[in-house]
From TrEMBL:
The keyword Membrane applies. One of its GO terms (biological process) is establishment of protein localization to organelle. Residues 1-20 form the signal peptide. It comes from Caenorhabditis angaria. Keywords: Glycoprotein, Membrane, Signal, Transmembrane, Transmembrane helix. GO terms for cellular component: late endosome membrane; lysosomal membrane; plasma membrane. The chain crosses the membrane at residues 231-254. This is Uncharacterized protein. It comes from the Eukaryota. The lineage of its organism: Eukaryota, Metazoa, Ecdysozoa, Nematoda, Chromadorea.
Length: 291
């Protein structure tokens, strides 16, 4: 019995944790509106962390930067229809620029596309193909001590033959939203050829580009969270099966403790009596043969 309640407790705890992961923590909401219709074309909801390496006067240093959830959108640069020129390509895009709150000279660009250079299933899907960060270390020397350069530009290098992790992970069918509650960390630059390293971490993420309505479309859960979602029916099923077994066990134990009289009272056909009945019958038969 103790073991059963322990297992139950474990399951309840597990389900509780899933709940905590999918909500509760704070996140920022960033929207780009169509200049004519004022309907959003990009909505990004996420809690964002940056992991940046920067050159110091005597080497390198690593910092983690949390992007305040009160950050805003730069509507003069953000666009529902623009061309991003990068690595000799001109990519038709939608662009979101976030200006981190109280971080002068900082910006984060998110560029989405349906272009076939990326895995967009013949433009049926959109993907986040580039994330660029402009850091201004000079704005906060206490957080970024000994910075050699006052600013640093970090960007996802585009190579059509080697598509980045971020664009093969963050995508959805047009009209749908991408949904990923768990923490996902992606490289922005992990090749020293293109400057110091940078990573971005997104959590409690819901995003949609090429949006045509005011609210999110159907949510497509990212692959790493699908297993958790798929587990829930199994966990609930196991809990119910466990409860049935406990109930049955308790009943059988209780029943076996009852005096025979009570069992006969409730069910006169119970096996005690039944066995006796057969014995009597047998005796009768024997008696009959003897006669
Ligand atoms: C990101 O930075 C690269 C390199 O400077 C540039 O070519 C590209 O246009 C930028 N993309 C966006 C979306 O800002």
């Amino acid at each position: 019995m103790k073991r059963f309640s322990l297992i139950l407790l474990f399951f309840i705890n597990f389900i509780g944790n899933i709940d905590c992961a999918s909500g509760g923590s704070s996140k920022g909401t960033y929207q780009v509106l169509d200049s004519v219709t004022h309907i959003p074309c990009i909505t990004l909801q996420a809690d964002i962390y940056l992991y940046l390496t920067y050159y110091t006067t005597d080497g390198e240093s690593d910092v983690t930067v949390h992007i305040p959830t009160t950050s805003t959108v730069d509507s003069s640069v953000s666009s529902c229809d623009t061309i991003v020129s990068t690595s000799g390509l001109s990519i038709k895009s939608q662009l979101l620029r976030i200006l981190p709150y109280h971080m002068d000279g900082w910006s984060i660009d998110f560029a989405f596309t349906k272009d076939n250079t990326f895995r967009t299933d013949n433009e049926k899907q959109y993907a986040l193909f580039q994330v660029n960060i402009t850091a201004n270390f000079a704005s906060d020397p206490t957080s970024f001590p000994n910075a050699k350069d006052s600013t640093q530009h970090y960007y996802v290098h585009i190579d059509p033959n080697d598509i980045s992790d971020i664009s093969t992970s963050i995508y959805a069918t047009s009209g749908n939203a991408y949904y990923c509650p768990s923490k996902q960390k992606y490289a922005i630059n992990k090749d020293s050829k293109y400057g110091p390293y940078a990573y971005i971490l997104l959590q409690t993420t819901t995003l949609q580009a090429y949006q045509t309505g005011v609210s999110f479309g159907q949510k497509e859960t990212c692959s790493s969270d699908q297993s958790v979602t798929d587990m829930i029916p199994i966990i609930v099923g196991s809990c119910l099966a466990g409860l049935i077994i406990i109930t049955l066990a308790v009943y059988l134990i209780y029943r076996s403790c009852l005096p025979e009289d009570v069992i006969n009272l409730v069910n006169p056909e119970s096996h005690y009596n039944y066995e006796n009945a057969i014995k009597i019958d047998d005796e009768d038969d024997i008696a009959h043969i003897e006669l």
